[in-house]
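Next comes this protein.

***
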Amino acid sequence: MDENQTLTPNQIIVGEHLYNEAITLMIQSAEHELLIFDQDLSHGNFSSLATYELLQKFLSQHIASHLSIILQDTAHFQHQCPRLLNLLKTFGHKMSVHVTNQSAKHAKDCFILADGKHYIKRIHIDQARFKYAYDDTVSVKALRTRFDELKEAIEDIVSMSPLGL
């Protein structure tokens, strides 16, 4: 039903494959900052070698680049995304992974913000309906406010050091 649709910015798009492609485009567009809110990173090809390489390139290219991820559940991240765990180990000074507390578990959308101007937003985790856009600072500002609110609901941080330091 949805696989014939093309990947076009500023439109509601349906399809897991297109969602994966749009995430790739969003990561490629980022130069300094990537903010990711997701339930568990099980959608979007986050465990793939290609996504790992894109994120590694992003974190390596600029001295001030930063990747911040907020998750509701870390099981998939910790067990199915070993490459991302490796990135966290290598780039812990430029990358953080946080877990929300119970008050934020009701959120069922997910989004990625790039450099304060580009975004992709999955409308509901259970359906591959999403929208993405470039140079849309108004939408990104609203999502950034939401990201900051989610940061206030952080319960824990995922750390690669035994003491969490």
